[in-house]
Specification:
The chain is mainly α. The chain has one domain. 81% of the residues lie in helices and 0% in strands. It is globular, with a radius of gyration of 18 Å. The mean pLDDT is 95.
């Protein structure tokens, strides 16, 4: 699953990284570079931690895990910050009309990621909970690469593709354990409901959310 996550990230961002980061017509804010590096570090960290468990180097896994705690603690506020910075850039420099209301998507990503990472840390001594919570947290970041595909973005399918990746974890449980773990039974319906709400804020643009977005982006 960690390698699949990496493949999705590379595939998705390959559609936009040249024009949006390496050779943009209008230079992007420097914070976008920091954001890209930090979030890429999470993908590498996730692969490393998975490999350490597979090779039964659990003590090393636990030690390296504290680096992940610190990394996640940076990622969440950085995720909110870059959403605002790039929202202002899109609105005032690129004149993208829905920048105010699109904030619901990156803000929602950070809420899901932060919540499930925190739960994974709290239950780090319960591997069956811990690994599934970290998978869900990592998958929450994947709507960003998925939404780099025009068709997926235009048809509001980013969250659906995220849920499909999480469902691969459910499929693994059914095939190997012959049951669905309670983490998925509780978390996945709640995440889907929350995702529908985020899409509603973005595409439905209720007046209160539009006012909120405008007050944030200026």
């Amino acid at each position: 699953m960690s390698l699949l996550v990496a493949a999705i990230v590379v595939w998705g961002f390959s559609h936009s990284i040249n024009d949006a980061l390496f050779h943009p017509a209008i230079p992007r804010p420097f914070l976008l570079w920091i954001h890209s590096i930090v979030f890429a570090c999470w993908v590498v960290f996730y692969i490393l931690q998975s490999a350490l468990v597979c090779t039964r180097k659990v003590n090393v896994h636990r030690s390296v895990g504290w680096f992940g705690v610190g990394l996640a603690a940076v990622m969440v506020p950085l995720g909110f910050a870059i959403a605002v910075v790039m929202g202002r850039f899109d609105k005032h420099m690129l004149n993208i009309a829905d920048s105010d209301i699109f904030l619901s998507v990156p803000f929602g990503d950070m809420i899901i990621f932060g919540t499930f990472v925190a739960l994974a840390i709290a239950w780090r001594r319960k591997p069956e909970l811990h690994r599934r919570l970290l998978l869900i947290a990592t998958c929450a970041l994947l709507d960003a690469p998925f939404d780099r595909i025009d068709y997926i973005f235009d048809h509001n399918l980013g969250f659906l593709f995220v849920d499909v990746v999480i469902l691969l974890g459910v499929a693994r449980d059914l095939l190997v354990d012959r049951r669905i773990h309670r983490v998925y039974l509780v978390a996945l319906p709640l995440i889907m409901i929350f995702e529908v709400f985020l899409i509603y804020l973005w595409r439905g643009a209720p007046a209160w959310w539009l006012r909120t977005g405008r007050s944030i982006l200026g």
